[in-house]
Design goal:
- The structure holds two protein chains of two kinds.
- Chain A has 21 helices and 16 strands.
- Chain A is α/β, with parallel strands linked by helices.
- In chain A, α7 runs antiparallel to α8, α9 runs antiparallel to α11 and α16 crosses α17.
- The longest helix of chain A has 20 residues.
- By secondary structure, chain B is of the alpha/beta class.
- The radius of gyration of chain B is 18 Å and the shape is globular.
- The chains are: A alpha/beta, B alpha/beta.
Chain lengths: 490, 278
């Protein structure tokens, strides 16, 4: 077990913390039941794009905050990729000092309203919580509390902007405005750097905008967090593709001293089975981009989307859940997940699976697509699938799906969304010949510093990891910021 | 935001716009394209860069009114701004000295063909260019093509200008007359399909520049995917130019019509609300 840092020990001994701990017995705290966040009625919500989770009330949040034991050894912090001072922000909630609590969150987390919604807390902070580890009880709802505070601050109209030291005049760039780039930008701005974030699309936010649907993460929530960064002096340049519009070398000539590549895992994978290019077959990236970024579902917007009555989504990840739940909202009568393993092996968060089930999504687990068929206009109308069974565990540790001979059958579909992962976007690597990449195309970095093989070029998020989570990308962005600061000082 | 500096009507339905885009003007090469979006609620569409002026920091786009988005862009005036212009995208044309290059362009495909012709000519090739359109006033960039080609052959469907016939008639005339080392074709998919069938008959290596549907244009969505040599390729990052003999043009033609019914409906309603655009 890592040594508890001195400042955490000291903070824990402050009077207000002592008083709060003394105000209630641990036994009373552990007897409280974990709060349940209110969710919209599944049969109503699957018809529109309003947010599914409703957030906590002040009363619920303070009650939940009482469950936190303010442990001597706050293991929860080590479970957080961006190292949020979890007990401190929770105890501020218990004390009713919500705006102070927000300041604590923002010391280390640039996007608390985002993380409170999309982080897989069940495998991070909440997994490391004393309740989970030692008491074998449901953990403190850290994610819900984070969201509560971030939302409280957003709606208070009193958004705090972190203190910015005198600018040091050193220009640094983030390539990409997704979670890695935004976390990086926030930390660099706090250290006084002159930060510019370059974005290829016409909107800032990367996957938070084009990928994650409104019903899980409303765009306005993202925009408020981006506004804080703007107030911190971060500059944003849209419609600018580093490596195409201008090269890293061009930007060096314009005075940029270091770069953080957070360009994401761009290229959608397909299965390369017959008929996969028929009309009505999308990658999940395209389907979600049309709906989330381009507002295709709104007739006021020009971008179209095909979304039929029988929609099959291939895959079992969070993106597959986002796509299948979107199809329901676009009017599908049958929205189906087709996944080659069983529900236990699904990479999607339990919450997303549960929400999809509640909303009437059908799960065809242990099925794999083999071929698509089209009508005379080239529009997909049927697909052939094969049943699978599970064999021995494979390299991923999950049981390997094995086709069952002779189990093939065809079914009617009019829209298919292929959500079987992404590969790194080659744009940046191909524009920098000396940049070392793996055989998968991800950028190779020093794991401690996120420094790539090119001097002054750091990288993080999916372009390094190949496909991970918002919070891991943010953790990379923070790590890169810290290392870049050291690099620029030497 | 990119300001429109110049506007010229080539015909009622074809417009040339010179647009402020200094970075793109500097970085672009023959074969590159941009993604353009107009208005907050607009759609992203790919447009090939016809020319660029590094000193003035401008690029030239040539657009034909075919649907809501292209019409909205064509209706912008000098001084107006295009909401979003991003690029240059795609891989540049592979230019080398091969001998004789037979370039063929149809419709507004002639616009992206121009920088390609320029580059091949500059590399020391003999360049013969065949321009084709339905009728005389749809022939564009003839003068510029003549400046960079050893010979220009004009073909119109109705014989109102140049020779009467299809692009392939003009191409075959050249192929029968002299040795062609490379053919380059840019235009409507159906035209490129038949141009490629023709050059295939004579075993001439051929490059086609494909203009598929796109959303982001950076490889992220796969809307632009085509089958080339039996493999799925993304036009935006693997192209837009491919070995034409390997391209599955029939699949491409189908995919281009993905949104035909809804597009036609949207266009009709747009025109009825914007009578001046017709």
């Amino acid at each position: 077990m890592a040594e508890v840092p001195e400042y955490l020990k000291n903070e824990r001994e402050q009077e207000w913390r002592l008083a709060l701990r003394g105000s209630m017995k641990n036994k009373e705290r552990t007897q409280l039941e974990r709060v349940q966040m209110t969710e919209q009625d599944p049969n109503k919500r699957n018809g529109d794009f309003t947010e599914v989770n409703c957030g906590l009330t002040e009363k619920e949040a303070r009650l939940e905050a009482q469950r936190c034991l303010d442990c001597v050894n706050p293991t929860c912090i080590t479970g957080c990729p961006v190292g949020i001072n979890i007990p401190k922000f929770i105890k501020k909630i218990e004390a009713g000092e919500f705006l102070d609590s927000a300041r604590v969150l923002k010391e280390t987390n640039t996007l608390p309203a985002v993380c409170g919604r999309v982080c897989p807390q069940e495998v991070q902070c909440e997994e490391a919580c004393f309740y989970t580890q030692k008491l074998k009880k449901t953990p403190v709802a850290i994610g819900h509390l984070e969201r509560f505070i971030a939302d409280y601050e957003q709606s208070s109209g009193k958004m705090s902007v972190p203190d910015i030291p005198v600018k040091n005049g050193i220009k640094v760039a983030s390539i990409g405005s997704g979670p890695a780039g935004l976390a990086f930008a926030g930390d660099m701005a706090k250290m006084g750097y002159d930060v510019t974030v370059f974005e290829a699309l016409h909107e800032i936010g990367g996957v938070l905008k084009y990928g994650i649907p409104e019903f899980r993460l409303p765009n306005r929530i993202v925009d408020v967090e981006i506004d804080v960064l703007k107030k911190m002096g971060v500059k944003f340049v849209k419609n600018f593709i580093v490596g195409a519009t201008a090269s890293v070398e061009d930007l060096r000539e314009e005075g940029f001293k270091a770069f953080m590549v957070g360009s994401g895992a761009g290229l959608p994978n397909f299965m390369h089975i017959p008929g996969e290019n028929y009309i009505g077959i999308y990658s999940s990236n395209e389907y979600l981009t049309r709906v989330n970024l381009m507002n295709a579902a709104d007739p006021e917007y020009d971008t179209p989307v095909i979304s039929g009555k029988r929609v099959a989504v291939i895959g079992g990840g969070n993106t597959a859940m986002d796509a299948v739940r979107t199809s329901k909202r676009l009017g599908a009568e049958r929205s189906m997940i087709i996944y080659r393993r069983s529900i236990e092996e699904m990479p999607a968060r339990n919450e997303e699976i549960k929400h999809a089930q509640e909303e009437g999504v059908e799960f065809m687990n242990l099925h794999n697509p083999l071929e698509y068929y089209a009508d005379e206009n080239g529009r997909v109308c049927r697909m052939k699938v094969q049943k699978m069974e599970l064999g021995e565990p494979d390299a991923s540790g999950r049981r390997r799906p094995i086709p069952i001979e002779g189990s093939e059958f065809t079914m009617e579909v009019d829209t298919v969304v292929v959500s079987v992962g992404v590969s790194p976007n080659p744009l940046i690597p191909s524009s920098m010949k000396e940049l070392e990449v793996s055989k998968w195309g991800t950028i190779i970095v020093n794991g401690d510093t996120m420094h790539s093989s090119v001097e002054g070029v750091f990288a993080g998020g999916d372009i390094v990891r190949g496909g991970a989570t918002v919070i891991l990308a943010m953790g990379d962005g923070r790590k890169a910021a810290e290392a870049m600061d050291q690099y620029l000082k030497n | 935001m990119s300001k429109i500096i110049e506007k010229e009507y080539f015909s009622e339905a074809v417009v040339r716009l010179v647009v402020e885009a200094p970075h793109i003007a500097k970085s672009r090469k023959a074969g590159h394209f941009v993604i353009v979006k107009t208005g907050e609620k607009g759609e992203r569409i790919p447009l090939t860069i016809a020319a660029a002026d590094v000193d003035k920091g401008t690029i030239t786009l040539i657009i034909q009114k075919v649907g809501v988005t292209s019409t909205k862009i064509c209706d912008l005036e000098v001084g107006d701004e295009i909401t979003d212009v991003v690029g240059p995208l795609g891989l540049p044309t592979h230019i080398e000295k091969v001998g004789t290059v037979l370039a063929s362009g149809g419709g507004v495909g002639v616009a992206p063909l121009l920088p390609i012709v320029e580059a091949f000519k500059e590399a020391g090739n003999r360049v013969i260019t065949v321009l084709a359109a339905r009728k005389k006033d749809l022939i564009i960039l003839e003068e510029q093509m003549r400046d960079h080609s050893d010979e220009v052959i004009i073909m119109t469907d109705d014989g109102s200008y140049g020779k009467q016939g299809l692009v392939t008639n003009g191409m075959e005339e050249v192929i029968l007359r002299e040795k062609v080392d490379l053919a380059v074709t840019v235009g409507p998919a159906i035209m490129m399909k038949f141009a490629t069938l023709l050059t295939g008959k004579y075993d001439i290596p051929t490059v086609a520049s494909l203009n598929t549907l796109m959303v982001d244009g950076t490889g992220m969505c796969g809307a632009c995917r085509v089958t080339v040599g039996g493999k799925t390729k993304f036009v935006c990052v693997d192209g837009p130019e491919f070995d034409a003999h390997e391209v599955d043009f029939d699949e491409m033609l189908l995919r281009l019509d993905s949104y035909k019914p809804s597009e036609a409906e949207a266009y009709e309603s747009y025109l009825s609300n914007h009578p001046k655009s017709i």
